[in-house]
Amino acid sequence: MALGSPELTTEALDGFDNARLREELDKAKAELFNLRFQAATGQIENTGRIKIVKRDVARIMTVLRERDLGIREEVEASEEDIKDKKKSRK
Question: Can you tell me which family this protein belongs to (predicted)?
C-alpha cells in the first residue's frame, strides 16, 4: 500500500506539465508548513497527514528531477490548461 494523496500518484503526475507540477509542489509545501505549525501548537487532529504530505512533496520533486535528467518525458501543457490559466489571471 502506497502512502500519499490518491490524486498525486506517479501515474497522475506523469500527465502534468512542469508548471502544474510546480503548482502542486507549492501547495503541498504550504500544507506541510501548516501541518507542522499545527503540530507545534498542539492543534493537529491527524498526525499521519504529515507523513502523507511529505511523501507527496518527495514524489513531485522526484518527477521534476527525472524530467531534468531526461529519465522521464516532459509533457506539454494542453490547450485547455492554457485557457484555464488565462481565465484565472483575469
Answer: Belongs to the universal ribosomal protein uL29 family.
Cα 28–Cα 84–Cα 78 angle in degrees, nearest 5: 90
Q: Measured between alpha carbons, how far is residue 13 from residues 18, 46, 52 in Å?
A: 10, 25, 16
φ, ψ for residue 24, nearest 5 deg = -65, -35
Query: pLDDT tens digits for 4-50?
Result: 788 888 899 999 999 999 999 999 999 999 999 999 999 999 999 99
Residue that the C-alpha cell 516532459 belongs to: 74
- pTM here is 0.80
Say how far apart CA 59 and CA 87 lie, in whole Å: 29
Domain ranges of the chain: 10-74
